[in-house]
Amino acid sequence: MATSASIFHSCFMYSSLILYLCLFFSLEKVSDLLQSTSCENSTKENTGVLKVVHRHGPCSQLNQGNANAPDLEKILAEDQSRVDSIHSKLSITSGGSDVKQTDGTRLPANKGLSLGTGNYFVTDTVGLGTPRKNVRLIFDTGSDLTWAKCKRGVDAYDPTKSTSHFNISCTSEICPYVTSATGILPDCVSSTCVYGLQYGDGSFSVGFLAKERLSIGSTENGGLFGKVGGLIGLGRAKLSIVTQTASKYNKLFSYCLPASGKTGFLSFGASQSKSAKFIPLSSDANFYGLELIGMIVGGQKLLISITVFSRAGTIIDSGTVITRAYSALRSAFEKAMSKYPKAKPLSILDTCYDFSKYETVSVPKIVLSFNGGDVEIDQAGIFVANGKAQVCLSFAGNSDARDVAIFGNTQQQNFEVVYNVNGGKVRFAPGEC
């Protein structure tokens, strides 16, 4: 009897250990950590919902043949440039001088041709002008101005051929809004208001400020095939799409950023999910701010003072690829993954592993605790892989602890992120692509 009791006790303890591992760790196939080479369409595609793909993924027509796709190191380097730009903008704004004059003649020749970073874009379901011409537009919660490249041709947006297009004059009350949307004072050419803006990767867009008809949802063909045609600004300024369509959509929009090899969506005016709690947004006019209050790695809450989080603050940005967080997260992750061989760093990512001899790996779950609720990062948001021999934790630290933390798009994958801007809150519904 004693022996039977001992065996039962051992099995019970073993079962408890398995339960513990399931709660705080996940067993992942190494092959699933690599970028997919095939495309799987979302089941969420319907009227009023725009299809979203990663511009360098297998679902993107821009990536056909993979001839022009940048390598991962270039994407990460451009991502760092974007983050530096955000930190600089926030630093200048806090200093009370966020407006600068620009000279159009000094801008480089590659205006707006490359937005850089691993951004997501909507496919040809957004139309401009009358008659309508469909365009592919990157969407960005860190930008306010919506713009499109103007071209001549049958299947291109040509403002001179649109009956609904007209330029904004320099004397219009709308022209000064350019300043809050771009951080640069508007110029005036032939009595027309001219904007200029620069992105974190060094690309520019310069053009005439105009009013135009924008259509969402379509069965038409056409568009700027093979290239991204511009950008949808989903920020908070007066010129952003969110503000301009407030009477129609009540400043409510949502998106789901898909993992590699899948499609997601962008939706205006309604959420695709009713699950998950809302988390308060800060009142910051420049970006969508969140109150990060803690982090959990493998079931262990990190010993970080809440004042550390509040001192720098946190924003959520759809255009930043890699989340910029705190070094304590990296240290805890390394400890939990100590049995796996390390690999050399990859650009800004310094916590990398060689999984070439493994079929599966046990990965600690990562939870970000915000004021209002916890967000458990999806498996797709934990690693960025440059092959099985170099799989890296997709979090990076800021060079200065006083810089704002950024919740990037890799960690937002497979959530429906719902922005209720009027209500001052955001919601994360997992597994919604």
Beta-strand share of residues: 25-35%
Q: List segments where confidence is low: pLDDT < 50 over at least 5 consecutive residues.
A: 1-13, 96-114, 219-226
Helix content: 10-25%
What is the count of helical runs? Answer: 7
**Separation, N- and C-terminal Cα atoms:** 54 Å
What global shape is seen? globular
* Major β-sheet profile: 11 strands, mixed
Mean pLDDT: 83
Tell me the radius of gyration: 23 Å
Describe the structure.
Residues 1-13, 96-114 and 219-226 have low confidence and may be disordered. With 433 residues, the protein is of the alpha+beta class. Strands 2, 3, 4, 5, 11, 12, 13, 14, 15, 30 and 31 form an eleven-stranded mixed β-sheet that branches. Strands 18-17-24-25 form a four-stranded antiparallel β-sheet. The chain is built from seven helices and 31 strands. The chain has helices at 2-24, 72-94, 177-182, 241-244, 246-249, 306-312, 327-336; strands at residues 25-29, 49-54, 120-128, 133-140, 147-148, 166-167, 187-189, 192-198, 204-208, 210-211, 214-216, 230-233, 252-256, 264-268, 278-280, 288-290, 292-297, 300-301, 314-316, 323-325, 342-343, 352-353, 360-364, 366-370, 373-376, 383-385, 391-393, 395-397, 405-407, 415-420, 425-430.
